[in-house]
Amino acid sequence: MTFAQFLSILRARKWAALLVFSLVVVTTVAVSLLLPKQYAGAASVVVDVKPDPVSANALSGLTAPGFMATQVDILQSERVALRVIRDLKLTENASIREQWQTETGGEGTLEQYLVQFLQKYLDVKPSQLSNVISIEFRSPSPQFAAGLANAFAQAYINTTLELRSGPAKQFNSFFQAQTKEARDSLETAQQRLSAFQQANGIIATDERLDIEGARLAELNSQLTQSQALSAESTSRQTQAQGSQSDRLQEVLNNPLISGLKADLTRNEARLQELSQRLGDKHPQVLEVRANNAELRSRIEAETRRVTGGVTMSNTINKSREGQVRASLEAQRAKVLQMKAVRDEGLVLQRDVENAQRVFDNLVARMNQSSLEAQNTQSYASVLTEAQAPTKHSSPKMLLNTLLAVFLGGLLAVGVALLMELTDRRVRSPEDVVAALGLPVLGSLPVPNAKRFNPARPVALGLQRAASLGAPGSSSGV
Domain containing 222 — which CATH number? Predict the structure, then answer.
């Protein structure tokens, strides 16, 4: 369809289109005039993102993308509406009860009816670039609209406070029970540790263990020394019992044996001299030889006495080594036992420390949840309070009229086109071409026209012959 055809259809159906357009506009204006005037009370609340004074942390949910949408849902929830109803005591209003009886016949509850009624005229709009939420309530009464908007704002703030303090109260009760159990566990662990310390006589385990460890180290050192002395004395005893006993240091250093050896040396020299001068049978030679034998006997006796002392010393060293070894083994067993006792005590001590740590954490959480449960400040606050509007917000006459003109025009054009489709007529040469698929050879002017107007012809279509020049192959329309 060309634009010229479209205009020709509108000209032909102008009265029907005009009638439809007029009905739409007149009806819209009449309805707008007859509708009761509605007033919109607007209040606004702002969500605060400052740190929580109890936990000293910023509310983590405030930065989430869905946080503001959640606040809008809370504002539009049944819980907030019920709080408004109870705060304003709307169920006690006689006119509201009468209206409820009239509209519902007493079915359902009055609170449910009021919740649906309030939510129907409530409009909540969050700001796109800030944390401000606008609350608007529509009502025929300006004062009622402003009052309901402020009531919804305050109910929303109280509800958010309940949503924060309610779980905090439940957590506080939970932490109180857990704290009591942790206190009992701590007392039990402390009693076990105290009983263990009393049973084992432990006052300062680490200090006593250090002392016993030092004593063990000292005994170990003494054993090493005793073993060295015992080994030395054993070697000397072996030497004393052998053929080299006269080379022992004790024998060499003994003054009596040294004196006897000196006397024996002098007597040997004298014996040799006398033997050469007097002969072997001389009485003096025999006397000197007897003296030398006596000296040798005394030297051997004294040497045996000295070597006997070495044996005794070795026996004493062996005995001392055995005593030190026994003391060392006893001390080692004592230290091991003390370590075992200390380890067991450390286990009990760690149980006490763990129980103390759990108890301290639970006490801290209980105190924090108690403070949160007693919190009276919400993260939302009223930014602007609604005032009774002086101008009604609906119906909007100018807007409704413009919309009626636009929709009426569309509907009028649609009706004209629909009528044309149900009753198709030839209104231009283009219609003939479109209907018959044949070209237009000529046209006659409209009857009674003052002059020929090509835009308003009555088309006379002639069908072209199937083959040009064939007689009798054309017909007129």
Answer: 1.10.287
Please state the domain count of the chain: 1
Q: How far is CA 203 from the centre of its chain?
A: 43
Angle, helices 78-88 vs 110-120, to 10°: value is: 110
Structure tokens at 66: 């869905």
Supply the DSSP string of 72-121, one letter for each residue: HHHHTSHHHHHHHHHHHTGGG-HHHHHHHHHHHTT-S-HHHHHHHHHHHT
**Which secondary structure element, helix H or strand E, spans residue 476, and what is its range?**
strand 475-476
What digits encode the pLDDT tens for the residues 103-113? 888 788 888 88
Q: Is the pTM of this model over 0.90?
A: no
Q: Which residues 6+ apart lie within 8 Å of 162 measured at CB?
A: none
In a domain, 460, yes or no: no
Q: Which domain, by its residues, includes 235?
A: 205-372
Task: Report d(CA 17, CA 427) in Å as an integer.
Answer: 17
In three-state secondary structure terms, 123 is strand
**Do the domain assignments include residue 5?**
no
Distance CA(454)–CA(445), nearest Å, equals 7
Tens-place pLDDT, residues 339-351:
787 778 788 888 8
pLDDT at 84: 92
Q: Assess if residue 275 is contained within a domain.
A: yes
* 431 part of a folded domain: no
pLDDT at 470: 35
Burial class for 276, CB neighbours closer than 10 Å (0-12, 13-18, 19+): exposed
Residues of the chain with pLDDT under 70: 1-2, 5, 49-65, 202-209, 232-254, 257, 303-304, 306-310, 394, 426-428, 431-432, 434-435, 443-477
